[in-house]
Design brief:
Pfam family, one: LRR_9
Function: Multifunctional protein that is involved in the regulation of many processes.
CATH class of one domain: Alpha Beta
Protein name: Acidic leucine-rich nuclear phosphoprotein 32 family member
Radius of gyration: 45 Å
CATH superfamily of one domain: Ribonuclease Inhibitor
Strand order of the largest sheet: 1-2-3-4-5-6
Keywords: Leucine-rich repeat, Nucleus, Repeat
Number of strands: 6
CATH topology of one domain: Leucine-rich repeat, LRR (right-handed beta-alpha superhelix)
Subcellular location: Nucleus
Distance between the termini: 136 Å
């Protein structure tokens, strides 16, 4: 997808002046240049153009409110003086993975007085002797270089990352839906557990009923046996009495 079409899609029926964040990562630039961006994006604060094949930033429009610019994994080797003119209020600049070989290439960045964080990972310039010390001398306004300050203390996440607010609306909506589903699930489990408990109680009551009936049957059987024994004993006693009377008559 080319950059112009990507910008059109990212607008989502908004006007350029309504956009504060614009992510154009992995689309195609035309002849290595930025295209489709205009001065109408006057409220833009964050722009990301990672891996779009840029060789130049010359076509950047005037973006006075731009604070964070992602240019990593492109083929930029110079022409950075444009940034001070087009984006004078930049605070974070990521040039990781570009064709920057020497300190003179980044020297124009000294005009970016608000620049606080600069990333040059995987650029040849990082292989120079005393690279970090020389960059901090060249750009005294910097607080963080490649995520660390002069004392090698790591930057907080908000400074180390080029765009802490990089989530778009769709991602936020997806997260909300997932949270909703997660919240709903325990309720279903509770209902199932309650149903299982009721079923177990019913089974226990049935067992009690059955055991009660068995005990009653045993008692009844016992009573019948006792009654038979009693009748038998009475019969034997009556027979003895008759025998005794017969003997007396004789």
């Amino acid at each position: 997808m080319d950059m112009k079409k990507r910008i059109y899609l990212e607008l989502r029926n908004r006007t350029p002046s309504d956009v504060k964040e614009l992510v154009l990562d992995n689309c195609r630039s035309n002849e290595g240049k930025i295209e489709g961006l205009t001065d109408e994006f006057e409220e833009l604060e964050f722009l990301s153009t990672i891996n779009v094949g840029l060789t130049s930033v010359a076509n950047l429009p005037k973006l006075n409110k731009l604070k964070k610019l992602e240019l990593s994994d492109n083929r930029i080797s110079g022409g950075l003086e444009v940034l001070a003119e087009k984006c004078p209020n930049l605070t974070h600049l990521n040039l990781s993975g570009n064709k920057i070989k020497d300190l003179s290439t980044i020297e124009p960045l000294k005009k970016l007085e608000s620049l606080k964080s600069l990333d040059l990972f995987n650029c040849e310039v990082t292989n120079l002797n005393d690279y970090r010390e020389n960059v901090f001398k060249l750009l005294p306004q910097l607080t963080y270089l490649d995520g660390y300050d002069k004392e090698d203390k790591e930057a907080p996440d908000s400074d180390a990352e080029a765009y802490p607010e990089g989530l778009d609306d769709e991602d936020e909506d997806d997260d909300e839906e997932e949270e909703y589903d997660e919240d709903a699930a325990p309720g279903d489990d509770d209902e199932e557990e309650e149903g299982d408990e009721e079923e177990e109680e019913g089974e226990e009551e049935e067992e009690d009923d059955i055991s009660g009936e068995e005990e009653e049957e045993e008692l009844n059987d016992g009573e019948v046996e006792d009654e038979d024994d009693y009748e038998e004993e009475r019969g034997q006693k009556r027979k003895r009495e008759l025998d005794e009377e017969g003997e007396e008559d004789d």
